[in-house]
Input
Amino acid sequence: MDWQLFLEKNDGSRLELSGKVIRLLHQEGCGLLPGELQMELIGKEELKTGEKLRLLTKGGENFCGRITAVSFGLDKGRVTRTVFAKDVRRFLHYSDAATFSAGDFASAAGEILAKTNLSGGCSLITSGVTLSGGDDRVKQYATMLEDLIAEHKILTGEQILLRCEGENLHFSTFASADAVTIPVEMIHRATLSERDEAVRTRLRLIYGEETVQVASENGMARWGVLQETQILGSPLTTDVLRLYGDAQIFHLAQEQKSLEIEMAGDWNRRIGDHLSVVLPLLNVRFQGYVTRVEQQLFSGKHITKLKLQASFGA
Output
């Protein structure tokens, strides 16, 4: 067995549950949305909401979170329990009338996390870029972080990735390293999709009295005028607005290409991974970033399901 599941009870005791699990589903959290663990197990051990679950694999700790719901019943004469748990990102979805100081991303994010009693760190993120401080309106902590992430992207062009590392949160930029190739023999099923629901061909940006409008001529020729208007909370000049608008419309005026694959179980796959997939039967070579990871264990089998969003230009 290449994984272990432990229950940490509130009295400090620890119990391994690996051998009692019938089914397990782990969905890695995406951005500020919590990761989730759902499992069905046999046995009469008492599990309570608020107790902690840890899923350990050869690659490290894939999940650490607290139980949010427990149900139990009978299945062919056996007592079974169904358990749901969420990782620490759950605590970002509570609200406060909290202010935080102007500063670069690392300092501002650290100030917000301190209010939630969570620990975090940053790497590969441009420092020294001053972001706006927060006001005292009641907001979820996740909303405060979303505003920071959006403002940082406007000023630097960097897309920030948030991951859970055990009980700690870690912010970084998406990997720029060469894509890792997934061997075709590991892939059981694959679905390639192209969609234009999110396409926008004209973008209007507003900050206070400043307004900038940018458009994609090629996009409008293909899809017509599909406008999006964004009201920004950051103090930006017209020149910065235009630079941001030009970068945004380049991405918005492209259809979304995605690939969903079901493959042999792989605990090493994480959201933000840069992967390459070659499907000779479809004459497809797809390169992109992982935006969804789902691990399934049942009947002694381990299956990994991934969704990849195409790298621009792929």
Remarks:
- The domain at 94-173 is CATH 3.55.50.10 (Phage tail protein beta-alpha-beta fold).
